[in-house]
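> tool_call: predict_assembly(chains=two)
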Amino acid sequence: MGNTVIRDANIVTMDAAGTIVRGDVRITDDRIVGVGDEEEHFVPDQVVEARGRVLLPGFIQTHIHLCQTLFRSRADDMELMDWLRTRIWPLEAAHDDESVYLSALLGIGELIQSGTTTLLDMETVNHTDAAFRAMAQSGIRAISGKVMMDRAGEDIPSALQENTDRSLADSVALLEKWHGYDGGRLQYAFCPRFVVSCTERLLITVRDLAEQHKILIHTHASENKGEIELVEKQTGMRNIVYLDHLGLTSPRLVLAHSIWLDDTERTIIQRTGTKVTHCPGSNLKLASGIAAVPALLSNGVQVGLGADGAPCNNNLDMFQEMRLTAMIHKVQHGPTSMNARTVLRMATIGGAEVLGLEREIGSIEVGKKADLILLDLNKFHAFPSYEADLYSRIVYAAGRGDVDTVWIDGHVVMRGRVMTTIDEAAVLSDADAAISRLLGRMA
Amino acid sequence: MGNTVIRDANIVTMDAAGTIVRGDVRITDDRIVGVGDEEEHFVPDQVVEARGRVLLPGFIQTHIHLCQTLFRSRADDMELMDWLRTRIWPLEAAHDDESVYLSALLGIGELIQSGTTTLLDMETVNHTDAAFRAMAQSGIRAISGKVMMDRAGEDIPSALQENTDRSLADSVALLEKWHGYDGGRLQYAFCPRFVVSCTERLLITVRDLAEQHKILIHTHASENKGEIELVEKQTGMRNIVYLDHLGLTSPRLVLAHSIWLDDTERTIIQRTGTKVTHCPGSNLKLASGIAAVPALLSNGVQVGLGADGAPCNNNLDMFQEMRLTAMIHKVQHGPTSMNARTVLRMATIGGAEVLGLEREIGSIEVGKKADLILLDLNKFHAFPSYEADLYSRIVYAAGRGDVDTVWIDGHVVMRGRVMTTIDEAAVLSDADAAISRLLGRMA
C-alpha cells in the first residue's frame, strides 16, 4: 500500500486529551505514522486533499447481525416474540450460503457508506463461513461468529436446532479457519444467542474455550422483560447473576442491550469488567426499553454502540445511533447528559475498548491502524461551520451521506462515495433475488 | 410551466384509501391532473422517467424557526432557560436583515433537500420581511409570521422588546404585504411566542384579527414544566385552559409541543379542533418530555410533525422526525403503536390538515397542488425492495440523501439533488460570514 498523506484535514483525533487539530495524517501501509505535524522525509505514493473536511476514526459498532440485513422492512411494528417466531427465525432457517453471503455484503455496504469500519457481528446457526467470505472480500474489520442455540424451544424451526457438541464443533472449526485472517482484520467470537437458548454445558465450555483462545464471547442479555423472567424460571437466578455464577462475566464478555438490570447486576458488570453494547434504535423500535447508559458510564463500565439487525432498526447507521444515544437519555437525565463528545467517544474509542482493541483502533494516533473516515460537512444541514463545535456538528447534524472516503487497514474501501470492494448494483439485484427465494422457501 | 408527466413511478398517494400504485403522474402548471392512469391526449412539455423510484407528496412541517438556522451547533446539551437566555435570545437580538435572510435560505435549502415542501414557520421580532423574501425566492410553500412578545421579561434583550401596539402593527403590515403572495404559496400567521411572553390584550386582538383575516395563529404551548408553572402563576389557570378562556382555541390555532397537558386540556383541544405539532427531536434534545401523541391521535386531534429550530434538533429533516415519532412512543405504548403508515400520514396529509390545507396539498390526488418528491431507494440502506412494505422503507430506512427531485407548486426546486432556486455554495459562505457578524455583536 505504501505511503499516503491526507492533507490539511480538520482531524478529530478522539485521543484521551480530546485533541482536534488541523493538519496532515500520514499512513504507511496499514498504520498511522503521523498526525497533525509535517515530515520532510515522508514521500507519499498518494496524496488526498482534505482541506475543509473532517477526518475521524472509523466508527465501531459492537452489536450487528449481518445475516438479518436481507430481512429489512419485513418485520416492523410487531411484538418481540411475534417478530422472532413469525419472521426472524423462519427467515434465518430459510437461509442458504448465497443468501447469507449477500445479506452480509448488503449490510457491510451500508455500514461502510455510513462510516463504520469495525463491527462485532452475530451470524445465524448455519452458513457462517459465507458471511466470513463477504467480510474478507469487503475489506471490513470484523469480529464475528455463528450463533449458538443448543436448547431448542418448540417455536424454533428445525433448521436452527443444533446439539451442544455440534454447536461447539462448528464454532471451533470456524474459529480455526477465520480467526486472525488478513493480519488479524477478521477475528472469531463465540456467540451464544442468549441464556434462554443455551445449555449450561455449552456456556461453561464456551467460557473455557474463549479463555483458551483469548477471544470474545458475544451474547444478548436482559433486552426484554419476558426474557429475564424466562431466565429466572430456567435458572432460579437473575440473568447477569447466572452468567456470573457460571464464570462468564469478564472483560471478554460483550452483552448486547443490558436494559433490565438490577443494582446487583450492575455491580457485577462493573466489578468484572464485562462490556455492554447500547442499541437505542433497536431498543425503541422493539419497545424493549431504555438502558441506563449514563449510570453505566459513570460507574466506569465500557459501553459501545450498535445498530443490531436491519429488521429492528432499520438502518445500520452509526449517525442514527449517535443521535438517538445523545437524545433519548436527556428526558430522564437532563439536557446536559450524554453530550456530543461523550457519544462520539462511545462510537469510536469506546467501542474499541469494548472489543479490547483500544491499542489498535478507535482514535487517530501514531501507531494505530489506518481506519479513517473523511466527512464533507459543507452542506446546508451541517452549516454554519464558523467556530461551531465539531462534536456537535458530527453527532447532531451530520449523516451517512456526508461520509466521502473510508480507509480500513490502510486500504480505501470507499472513495467519493463509490465503493471499491463491493459492486453495489449487483448486490442490490442479487439481494432481491435472494429474499424472494427465502420467502418462497418459507411459504 | 405547461405539462409534465412523471413516468412509471411507484406512487405512494397518501389518499384516504392508502392507494399505492405504479404509473404516471401528470401535472399541468401547478396542479396534478392525472394519477396512475394514462391519457392519450396529454401532450407533455417535460417527461421525467421515474421507473424504480418512489413518488410521495412533499413533507409538511408544522413547526419551524427559520431565523434560528444560523445558530445550529451553538447551543447544545444545555438547560432550556440557559439555552434561551444565553444563546437564542441574544442571537435573535443580534440579527439584521441580511442574517435573517441567510438563516431562512440555509434552512429552506436543508428543508427542500430533505423533502419538505411546506412549512409553518415562526420568525423573530424584527426583520421578518427578509425571511419572507427568502421564502419567495426559494419557491418553498410557507406560512410564516413575526414572533410577538409584548410582555418583556427582565432576561429579554432590548432588541426583542416591543409594545403591544407595535407588535400588532408590524404583524398586520407583514400580513398585508405577504399573505397570498404568488397565488397563495406564501401566507401569514400570527405568532405569539407563548403565553408567558404575551399580554392578554395582545392575545385577544390576535384572536380577532385571525378570525377577521381567516389566518392561523401559531404558538408554543406546554413544552416545558417550568413554562406551565409560569402560566399558572401569571393567569391562575392551566395553559390550555387560559387559551380557551380567551377564546383562542379553534381550528385556526396551532400549538407546538403540547407535552404537559392534563385531561381537561386534552378535552379542550379535542372539542375545539385545535391543532398540535409534535416535535420529537427538539423535545428529546431539550429534555422537554414526550408528548402523548398516540392518545391525541386516537381522540381525533390533528397532529403534524416539525423539526423546530436548528439549535434544538439539529436538523430540519422530516426523515429524522418520522423515525423518532415511530420509535419513541413504542417503549410506552408497545411496538405496534405509531406504525410506519400512521407516521407517514402525519408527515404529509396530517400536516396539511393541521394547516387547514388538506384540500390543496398533502396527498397525490387529481386537483391538488403539484408538491411532490421523488425518492431513489435503490441503495444498500433501503434494500431489499422485493415485496417490501414501502411505508416501512420510507419511515424506517430512507433518509434525506434519497430525495432526488422536488416539485413545489409545479416548479422543480431540486433536480438530481441540485438546487435550482438557491446557490448552495454562496449561501454556505455567506452564512458563515453572517454568524461571525452576529457573534461579534453579542461579544
